[in-house]
Amino acid sequence: MKRTTKIFALLMVLVMLFSFAACTKNNGNAANNNAANTNEPEKFELKSLGQMKIEYAKRFSIELFEGGYRIITAGTGGYKYLIVPEGKPLPGEGDIDEKTLVLQQPITKVYMCSTGMESLVDAIGALDCTPLVGTDKSGWYLPNVIAAMESGKIKFGGKYSEPDFEKIVSEGIQLHVNTTMIDSKPDVLEKFDELKIPSLVEDSSKEGSPLARVEWVKLFGVIFGKEAEADKYFEEQKKMVNDNTSASLGKTVAMGYISSNGDKAYLRNGGDY
Q: Pick from 201, 211, 198: which is nearest to 244 by CA?
């Protein structure tokens, strides 16, 4: 009888131990699940703050969002460019469609094939962000660009229509900027797509005034995180132009140029700045 009682008591102890272990395991799983839920990235939606003030340019726009996010609409490719601030997460999938290219800051590796836009990048002190350019040293007139190429900070990355893709990949290029001349070379753009390197084909040449072209500096201010510098430079240029065009000089000028091979002469349209 006593032996039976001891066996029963032992079985009861074992049952209690198993029950306690199971309870502890379940509580542990619940705690782990709660911890996992806590560590999940916070999902959010972009909240628009309206459009950036653009006074003259008609070929691009910039929408501002809470948290420093920006969406640039520009270029001949029909793309939008979502600029994500450094250290910030991507928004929800509903905010990014197939025609929106994502650029995560810092953006410090740009292959720049537009000499006009490089002059604006120079103006806001962002030349270090364009380690490759599409014009060799002999084709530049900007002193800072020439000096950077002589020191090796900026390198020739191949002609705009014949990029050195091996160098572009090894350099870790994040964005390719070109002019509308590249539209006649769709195979080049396709190669950038294949390499998953976004392209921005700027069409500032279609703007209707000098200040409209200069205002593209705001676009690169957004890309390189130098919005204040871009605004300051643009206001300086606007003041300079306005101060010197307030009165007519009573003179007219015809402007044109001869093609490099000398077989054609071009005249600007009437009313063209």
A: 211
Is the Cβ–Cβ distance between 118 and 132 less than 8 Å?
no
DSSP 174: -
CA–CA separation, 59 vs 200, rounded Å? Answer: 13
Instruction: Give Cβ neighbours of residue 51 (< 8 Å, ≥ 6 apart).
Output: 61, 62, 63, 64
What whole-number distance in Å separates Cα of residue 200 and Cα of residue 189? 10
Q: Is 42 domain-assigned?
A: no
What digits encode the pLDDT tens for the residues 185-228? 999 999 999 999 999 999 999 998 999 999 999 999 999 999 99
How many structural domains compose the chain? 1
Residue 271 placed within a domain: no
pLDDT digits (tens, 9 = 90+) for 116-146: 999 999 999 999 999 999 999 999 999 999 9
Residue 113 lies in a domain: yes
For residue 196, what is the domain's CATH number? 3.40.50.1980
User: 133: how many CB neighbours lie within 10 A of its CB?
Assistant: 27
Q: Which domain holds residue 142?
A: 48-229+237-244
Q: What is the pLDDT of residues 6-43, one digit of tens each?
A: 554 444 544 454 454 444 444 444 434 433 444 444 55
Overall size of the chain counted in residues? 273
